[in-house]
Please model this.
Amino acid sequence: MWKCPKCGREFKNEEQNHYCVKMTGIDEYIAAQPEDVRPLLQSIRETIRAAAPEATEKISWQMPTFWQGKNLIHFAAFKNHIGLYPGGEIAFEFKERLAGYKTGKGSIRLPLDKPIDHELIADIVRWRVEQTVKRNDTL
Model:
């Protein structure tokens, strides 16, 4: 176990990447990132906002999150990529368009050295909104 000397949190991995301070808003989250990554995060935020204008911004799981009845999508900065977390079904729905990306269960890695596909992000967010509305209508 590794203990962070700043905040005292314990982690399995040595030198675990984390935030010692609990983020309270997306502006604060973006400001805490490396200078070269901030514009990318802001552009992703604006793309999500345009695709889901009724969604509320919040921090959840220490990541910027857009919420509309439930979490629509999270995003987070890492050393070599920006992670998008729209949920598990996305890998099937957008399989062909995600072929060039590393994906995991409900996650997509956007490499920092490649252009951001804002159209793909917007389509994913609109699809998530549509799915959320459908689920809420059936309840």
